[in-house]
Sequence to fold (295 residues):
Amino acid sequence: MGSVLIGDRWLGDGQPVYVVAEIGINHNGDLEQARRLVDAAVRAGCDAVKFQKRTPELCVPPDQRDLPRDTPWGRMTYLEYRRRVEFGRAQYEEIDRHCRERGIAWFASCWDEASIDFMEDFDPPAYKIQSAAVTDLPLLDRLRETRRPLILSTGMSEMEEIRTAVERLGVDQLVICHSTSAYPCAVEQLNLRMVLTLRWRFGCPVGYSGHEVGLPTTVAAVALGACYVERHITLDRAMWGSDQAASVEPDGFARLVRYVRTVESALGDGVKRVYASELPVRDRLRRPRPALASH
Fold:
């Protein structure tokens, strides 16, 4: 497998797993809540946090803009709701400052070209490409033009669609993430062996973006070779929002990071050796058998 440099961290075989807490829109448009989520990710030992950036006027289809929606802030149109949960420049400047103070990287998935232009001002270490954008070729072209590392999620995508996207992006600075776009996702639909399939098919670093309930299956993805792991983080899974139920609370995220670090330490390098800790056992259990007396 190749390697990709994100900030000051290499991703690939033999490197520590890059763990990302996706804040997404779980902040519900509340900057203080976003700060608390960043702090929770830092305490958990994550390498980065990720947000989502949209231009609502470009991303909300015209036939959905005026649809009414019940929200914690009252009944409003879907376009008004999308504006309500979207951060602008002042909020992202504060997020950038806060993450720098806490010593954690941050980046975003951008849903339109204007959002990429917006994020470029913050010099992100990478961009995440959400599964919904796998077939959005103009967006992929704009992302490649940034010349930054790209992390491609592959939920709700056929292999031919993934192949087309990879050819468009190139593999020199690409991490491909296996994902299933169901929130939350049933265990039977995780199909974790796709981590192996993507490694074999494309020859670049492969990660896992999970939306399941629980932690063991994400750790299993690491055992299968995922060098990048992403899960949504929330302060409380019962909070209002479309992604909260498929998210991991702070204490759970801390456990996840510990489990990932334990498993990556246990994987080793695949070279058989006798460890010093085995020598006393070998000396005790592999003594030559005494010769049988002859008659």
